[in-house]
Design brief:
Blueprint: H1 69-84, H2 94-101, H3 105-109, H4 115-126, H5 139-158, H6 160-169, H7 173-200, H8 210-227, H9 237-247
Helix pairs in contact: 1-2, 1-4, 4-7, 5-6, 5-7, 5-8, 5-9, 7-8, 8-9
């Protein structure tokens, strides 16, 4: 039986298809009606390799990457729909998610090793995308990253579901550790790297600890987004914050 990924639900224990690579695949059966005609299925991933591509069996196996964007979208939407219906994170099972998405369990396990990894991707899907930065600028990149932190705070405030998910995640250490390791830690590393570039470029003092400088910039935004949910997050918050820190908080001498 094939799920909407176009793949057989049953796979070998090592995750590979039973069809040898050196055999031509048997022709597909007569196409079935698309169960979700309104979805954009995107390009097919089961096409024959072009002349300038390496044979499929000579390539590195694709670990955890979707073979069908439509199947992944259906899985993420299924989790969101179940959460919106009031199901707690702890109560969701892979079987329930697969049934709701209209896919086989194997389709989920080809993409995610378990529920924690899947739930992290659900949260990332609901959050604003991480911003693109130059990777060479200092203060300019720092400003972009701080603005992204502010907009994520706004997203949590405007989405009761996202706020509820974060509250549940913090009561599940394994899930929170997965989110911290794959999402928060890389964001913090990007922020620290931007601070180091600003120091190297002479935009920030070089006699202070880099992590302390990072905390001075990030801390006020985190306080307003996490600890003071009633505090305003105006559009000019990041500019005002950076100006205040760069000019210093001591009174100006006449």
């Amino acid at each position: 039986m094939r799920d909407q990924d176009g793949e057989r639900d049953g796979t070998r224990g090592d995750g590979r298809n039973d069809t040898p690579h050196d055999q031509e695949p048997s022709p597909d059966p007569e196409p079935r009606p698309d169960p979700e005609p309104h979805r954009d299925r995107g390009p097919r991933h089961d096409r024959e390799p072009q002349h300038d591509e390496a044979p499929r069996h000579d390539r590195e196996p694709r670990r955890g990457r979707p073979r069908s964007a439509a199947a992944e979208r259906a899985i993420l939407d299924a989790v969101i729909a179940l959460l919106e219906a009031g199901e707690p994170l702890a109560g969701l099972s892979i079987e329930r998610i697969a049934r709701t998405a209209g896919v086989g369990k194997a389709t989920i396990y080809r993409r995610w090793s378990g529920k924690e990894e899947l739930f992290v991707d659900v949260v990332r899907d609901m959050e604003p995308d991480d911003p693109q930065i130059s990777g060479t600028e200092g203060l300019a990149d720092l400003r972009i990253l701080l603005e992204s932190l502010r907009t994520r705070g706004l997203a949590q405030r405007s989405s009761a579901l996202l706020h509820n998910i974060f509250a549940q995640m913090k009561s599940h250490p394994k899930l929170w550790d997965e989110y911290f390791g794959t999402v928060i830690a890389p964001r913090r590393a990007a922020m620290l790297a931007a601070v180091r570039r600003a120091v190297a470029a002479g935009e920030l003092r070089d006699d202070l600890d880099v992590e302390l400088i990072d905390d001075l910039f990030v801390g006020p935004v985190l306080v307003r987004t996490v600890h003071r949910p009633e505090a305003p997050l105006p559009d000019d918050l990041v500019d005002r914050l950076m100006t205040a820190l760069l000019q210093g908080l001591a009174p100006r001498r006449v």
